[in-house]
Structures are given as C-alpha cells and as structure tokens.
Amino acid sequence: GTELPAKKAKKVFLKAGAGTRAVNGGAEINASKTGVLRVEQSRVFIDELLRVRGNVDFSVGNIKGTGSVHVTGDILPGFEVHAQNNVLVDGSVEASVVDSKGSILIRQGAFRGSRLYAVGEITVGHTRDAYIEAGGDITVVRESFNSTLNTKANLMIKDGPSGARIAGGIARALGT
Fold first, then answer.
1. 3-state secondary structure 40-97
2. Residue 176 has pLDDT above 70, yes or no
3. If residue 34 lies in a helix (H) or strand (E), which one and from where to where?
4. In angstroms, rounded to a whole number, what is the distance separating the alpha carbons of residues 33 and 44?
C-alpha cells in the first residue's frame, strides 16, 4: 500500500539500422520492410524472419536462415538450424544442432547430444546430455542434468516448479 516514486528515466538515443529509416529529423524510426525487431548497441534493425510452422523434420529439412528463425514445434534428431540472428524454438531440441550469430531461446529443453552455439545468450527450459556454448549469458530455467554448459559471461539457473539444480556434467562461466 506504500507508493514508491519512479526512478528518473535515462534518455536513450537510437539510430536507424538495416531495414529501418529515420523520419522527422531522426525523432522517429520506421520499418522499411517486414520482419522482426532487433535492437543492438543503440541501433534498431528489422531482420528477416523465417518461421517454421511445426517441427524441423524430413518434411522441412535443415534450416539456414539469413535473419532470425522461429520454430513453432520441435527440432527432431539429426537436423540442424543455423541463423544469422536469433533462434526461437517453442518446443524441444533432440540430438540436433542449433547455431546462432545472435541469441537462442529454447522454451522446452535440449536433450540427447544436442549442441547449441550462440554468439549472444542462450536460454533453455531444461537440459539433459546436451552441450551448450554461448558468448553471452546462459540461463537454464529449471534444471540441467549431465550437460556441458560453457559461457564467456554468466551462468544462471532459475528456480522452476521443482526447484533449480545442476546435476552432473560440466559448468564453466567466465563472467562476474
């Protein structure tokens, strides 16, 4: 019931990047093409988005996206997804490779020899027998079992419904 005063907001200056244009003397940035928004180092970009509706399997094949990739299902064993920007997988990754020049978000889990590589951060629901390597932070939302987690930044295990834990495997974090 106590009112808390808001902190004074910082001024942010953004510049138009690829896929955008500055208007009104730079006071606004508009998209010049369809895609997905990305802000990086004070620049606004619109990236191409390749959306795979369903699973990455034999009906789709391996994916090489020139922008960001969104898989609404799972990535099945033996398949690979490579993206120049971010990767979002609504399901799980099993015995597959996901490689991103941006960040990776796996909403469910990475299992059975899956390998995840990202220049940016990686967030995954849970892992079992997976290899994960990130230039940015690695966040495991629930738990990690017998997995290798390598990050040049921070490793975070969040508290899921059954508790947060790392059991077995190797965890290396070079961050603060």
1. ECCEEEEECEEEECCCECCCCCCEEECCEEEECCCECCCCEEEECCCEEECCCEECCE
2. no
3. none
4. 13
8 Å CB contact between 159 and 142? no
Selection from 174, 111, 98 nearest residue 146 by Cα:
111
Cβ–Cβ under 8 Å, residues 108 and 123 = no
**CB neighbour list of residue 14: distance below 8 Å, 6 or more residues apart:** 29, 39, 42, 43, 44
List of residues 6+ apart from 32 with CB closer than 8 A: 19, 20, 21, 46
Q: Enumerate the β-bridge partners of residue 9.
A: none
CA-to-CA distance for 85 and 65, rounded, in angstroms?
8
pLDDT digits (tens, 9 = 90+) for 106-131: 999 999 999 999 999 999 999 999 99
The alpha carbons of the chain give a radius of gyration, in whole angstroms, of 18
What tokens does 107 get? 């909403």
